[in-house]
Amino acid sequence: MSAGPSKSAPVIVITGTPGTGKTTHAQLLAQESPVPLKHINVGDLVKEKGLYESYDHEWQSYTVDEDKLLDELEPLAAAGGVILDWHTCDLFPERWVDLVVVLRCNHTQLWERLEKRNYPLKKIQENNEAEIMEVVLDDARSSYAPEIVIELQSAGTEDLESNVARIVQWIEAWQKNQQSVEE
């Protein structure tokens, strides 16, 4: 369920295994959207606002303080007009979210992308296995209504452009639906 007719723009979660193109998709969507959307890179927000409990040097990642993160995001989600870009989605309450986009990528290509980021081998292996096992997709499907979860391939620029165009069409339909609910 959405937060009601008071939102002028939807809350969209763009999720997927690290390296699937979430941030690139979110940035382009924020530019192309027919309604103003603020891109929130949740990982960056966690670092900037200190919304973590600790830093794991072996995995080169933060242990997120989920309560602090949700408190930070709640007013933004309630207002609408945000793209939440993160490698997981099941933390976000269902009432916040209007659309969940799960980006997928061929595991060989994913491996190359993560190597370019200088991820430790152990982290590349774990993320690659997660992609093969559809971990993020399964989390999305078990956390949200099936009609709001879409799976999109993210192999390159062509996919990026068609995916963003598809999400823009979804936003336009969402807007029409909101207007008819309010009338």
Automatic annotation (TrEMBL):
ATP binds at G19, G21, K22, T23, T24, R117. SUPFAM superfamilies: P-loop containing nucleoside triphosphate hydrolases (SSF52540). Residues 41-64 are annotated as: NMPbind. Pfam families: AAA_18 (PF13238). One of its GO terms (cellular component) is cytoplasm. One of its GO terms (molecular function) is AMP kinase activity. It catalyses: AMP + ATP = 2 ADP; ATP + H2O = ADP + phosphate + H(+). HAMAP family: Adenylate_kinase_AK6 (MF_00039). Interacts with small ribosomal subunit protein uS11. Not a structural component of 43S pre-ribosomes, but transiently interacts with them by binding to uS11. This is Adenylate kinase isoenzyme 6 homolog. It comes from Ceriporiopsis subvermispora (strain B).
